[in-house]
Sequence to fold (70 residues):
Amino acid sequence: VHHGATFDDVTDADGATQALQGLLDGFPDLSWQLGVVVVDAPYVAATWTAGGTQEAAFQGVEPTGRAAEW
Fold:
């Protein structure tokens, strides 16, 4: 399950594919850096940072050609 402000919650592989495809279309040089990972079986939580250059429209925002990090 992915909870985030950018997308609706993702609970299956098809939802993850759709969410990630939108990111990859908008930010073709997208990259992720994994931060802290905490495991308390059966739960796992992680922090991460992502970034890329907006080369195509994303969630209704026209391409800016600028780098973004979140």
In short: The chain is about 20% helix and 35% strand. Strands lie at 31-40, 43-53, 67-69. The longest strand covers residues 43-53.
